[in-house]
Amino acid sequence: MSYPSNTDSVAQDQLRAFIERIERMEEEKAAIAADIKEIYAEAKGNGFDTKILRMVVRIRKQDANERMEQQALLDMYLGALGMVEAPPEY
Hints:
Layout: H1 6-45, H2 50-61, H3 64-80
């Protein structure tokens, strides 16, 4: 009969601990996702457009340079498609 070595036992304990930590984080993540969903529902109930709110949250995560670069590319693409009004001439 083969008994697990002390090293195998330690590795098993570590593996179990990692899995349990991941499972706890997944549970917390699900709870947080549910809370965020409730906040969006509340905002929608108060007349806010949740698509735009999500966009604002995504944009706020970017740094200023990345945001400016994306805006410049968007303006360029829209301009190439004739979808941007020319600035008023004075």
